[in-house]
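Input record (one chain):
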Amino acid sequence: MLPDTRLARVSSLYRSAPVGYLDQPDFTNAVARIETALPPRALLDQLLAIERRYGRVRDFANAPRTLDLDILLYDECVVQEPGLTIPHPRVHERAFVLVPLAEIAQDAVIPGRGRVSELVRYVDAGSLVKLEASKNETP
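The corresponding structure, as predicted from the sequence alone:
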Protein backbone atom coordinates (compact mmCIF):
# COMPACT_ATOMS: atom_id res chain seq x y z
CA MET A 1 0.00 0.00 0.00
CA LEU A 2 2.96 2.32 0.64
CA PRO A 3 5.59 2.63 -2.10
CA ASP A 4 9.11 1.41 -1.29
CA THR A 5 7.89 0.17 2.10
CA ARG A 6 7.68 -3.20 3.83
CA LEU A 7 5.75 -4.13 6.96
CA ALA A 8 8.21 -5.66 9.43
CA ARG A 9 6.22 -6.15 12.67
CA VAL A 10 2.81 -5.38 14.11
CA SER A 11 1.81 -5.25 17.76
CA SER A 12 -1.30 -6.68 19.33
CA LEU A 13 -4.43 -4.53 19.32
CA TYR A 14 -5.27 -2.52 22.43
CA ARG A 15 -8.44 -0.67 23.44
CA SER A 16 -8.15 2.68 25.21
CA ALA A 17 -10.37 5.55 26.21
CA PRO A 18 -10.24 8.63 23.97
CA VAL A 19 -7.88 11.47 24.86
CA GLY A 20 -8.84 15.14 24.65
CA TYR A 21 -12.36 15.09 23.22
CA LEU A 22 -14.05 12.42 25.34
CA ASP A 23 -17.52 12.21 23.72
CA GLN A 24 -16.59 9.43 21.31
CA PRO A 25 -16.11 5.65 21.37
CA ASP A 26 -12.98 3.97 22.70
CA PHE A 27 -10.04 3.68 20.33
CA THR A 28 -8.34 0.58 19.02
CA ASN A 29 -4.57 1.08 18.96
CA ALA A 30 -1.62 -0.76 17.50
CA VAL A 31 1.94 -0.01 16.46
CA ALA A 32 3.64 -1.20 13.30
CA ARG A 33 7.30 -1.23 12.39
CA ILE A 34 7.98 -0.57 8.75
CA GLU A 35 11.09 -0.47 6.63
CA THR A 36 10.84 2.31 4.06
CA ALA A 37 12.90 4.19 1.53
CA LEU A 38 10.49 7.14 1.82
CA PRO A 39 11.86 10.21 3.59
CA PRO A 40 9.80 11.40 6.60
CA ARG A 41 7.72 14.06 4.77
CA ALA A 42 6.86 11.72 1.89
CA LEU A 43 5.91 9.00 4.39
CA LEU A 44 3.62 11.43 6.22
CA ASP A 45 2.00 12.50 2.95
CA GLN A 46 1.31 8.84 2.10
CA LEU A 47 -0.16 8.17 5.56
CA LEU A 48 -2.44 11.21 5.33
CA ALA A 49 -3.64 10.04 1.92
CA ILE A 50 -4.54 6.65 3.42
CA GLU A 51 -6.46 8.37 6.23
CA ARG A 52 -8.45 10.36 3.66
CA ARG A 53 -9.23 7.19 1.66
CA TYR A 54 -10.72 5.73 4.84
CA GLY A 55 -12.91 8.77 5.45
CA ARG A 56 -10.78 10.74 7.90
CA VAL A 57 -12.01 14.31 8.28
CA ARG A 58 -10.20 16.76 10.56
CA ASP A 59 -13.07 18.83 11.96
CA PHE A 60 -11.30 19.84 15.19
CA ALA A 61 -8.47 18.67 17.45
CA ASN A 62 -9.04 15.16 18.83
CA ALA A 63 -12.30 14.82 16.88
CA PRO A 64 -13.72 11.33 16.32
CA ARG A 65 -11.96 9.65 13.43
CA THR A 66 -12.07 6.53 11.34
CA LEU A 67 -8.29 6.18 11.24
CA ASP A 68 -5.30 7.96 12.75
CA LEU A 69 -1.85 7.11 11.40
CA ASP A 70 1.16 8.71 13.10
CA ILE A 71 4.90 8.51 12.63
CA LEU A 72 6.16 7.80 16.13
CA LEU A 73 9.83 7.31 15.31
CA TYR A 74 12.00 7.36 12.21
CA ASP A 75 15.16 5.53 13.20
CA GLU A 76 16.72 7.92 15.72
CA CYS A 77 16.02 11.03 13.63
CA VAL A 78 14.66 14.23 15.08
CA VAL A 79 12.49 16.24 12.69
CA GLN A 80 10.85 19.60 13.46
CA GLU A 81 8.94 20.93 10.45
CA PRO A 82 5.54 22.55 10.07
CA GLY A 83 3.06 19.71 10.42
CA LEU A 84 5.71 17.06 11.16
CA THR A 85 7.43 16.38 14.47
CA ILE A 86 9.49 13.22 14.98
CA PRO A 87 9.60 11.67 17.47
CA HIS A 88 5.89 12.14 18.03
CA PRO A 89 5.73 14.82 20.76
CA ARG A 90 3.70 12.75 23.27
CA VAL A 91 4.88 9.23 22.48
CA HIS A 92 6.65 8.97 25.86
CA GLU A 93 3.50 9.96 27.82
CA ARG A 94 0.89 7.64 26.33
CA ALA A 95 0.38 4.06 27.46
CA PHE A 96 -1.71 3.32 24.35
CA VAL A 97 1.44 4.04 22.31
CA LEU A 98 4.25 2.86 24.58
CA VAL A 99 2.77 -0.52 25.51
CA PRO A 100 2.30 -1.75 21.93
CA LEU A 101 5.60 -0.12 20.94
CA ALA A 102 7.39 -1.98 23.73
CA GLU A 103 5.79 -5.21 22.51
CA ILE A 104 7.55 -4.97 19.13
CA ALA A 105 10.53 -2.67 19.77
CA GLN A 106 11.45 -2.55 23.45
CA ASP A 107 15.04 -1.60 22.63
CA ALA A 108 14.01 1.36 20.47
CA VAL A 109 15.25 4.73 21.66
CA ILE A 110 13.07 7.81 21.67
CA PRO A 111 15.52 10.66 21.03
CA GLY A 112 15.71 12.98 24.00
CA ARG A 113 13.57 10.65 26.16
CA GLY A 114 15.24 7.25 26.44
CA ARG A 115 14.73 3.58 25.76
CA VAL A 116 11.14 2.36 25.26
CA SER A 117 11.65 -0.51 27.73
CA GLU A 118 12.39 2.06 30.46
CA LEU A 119 9.76 4.65 29.52
CA VAL A 120 6.92 2.12 29.47
CA ARG A 121 7.47 1.55 33.21
CA TYR A 122 6.36 5.11 33.99
CA VAL A 123 3.02 5.28 32.17
CA ASP A 124 -0.29 4.27 33.71
CA ALA A 125 -1.51 1.39 31.57
CA GLY A 126 -4.32 0.46 33.98
CA SER A 127 -7.14 1.33 31.57
CA LEU A 128 -5.46 -0.18 28.50
CA VAL A 129 -7.03 -3.47 27.41
CA LYS A 130 -5.17 -5.93 25.20
CA LEU A 131 -7.65 -7.39 22.73
CA GLU A 132 -7.65 -11.11 22.06
CA ALA A 133 -6.42 -12.28 18.70
CA SER A 134 -9.06 -13.42 16.28
CA LYS A 135 -9.77 -17.18 16.27
CA ASN A 136 -9.26 -17.03 12.48
CA GLU A 137 -5.84 -15.39 12.75
CA THR A 138 -2.97 -17.38 11.31
CA PRO A 139 0.04 -17.54 13.70
